[in-house]
Amino acid sequence: MSIEALEQxxxxxxxxxxxxxxxxxxxxxxxxxVVALGTREGFSFSEEELAAGLAKLSNGGELSEKxxxxxxxxxxxxxxxxxxxxxxxx
Length: 90
Known about the structure:
Number of helices: 5
Structural class: mainly alpha
Helix content: 55-70%
């Protein structure tokens, strides 16, 4: 039932811009935060099931822009102003 709960949670997230923003923030905080958000919304799944679900999404073809926003992260460093962990290094 947990994988089904994860899929239902995903559908709910995709249907609500506010919840999608919360899920995006939770993804930045890590899997435990996403599981906690899912639990708060009434869905029960584990961190392992979340990882499997994300892997299934990525192996199922190309992700949409919205899907990429949910899982993407990182830092952009300008080539003339390289940074490391938010500090300018020269």
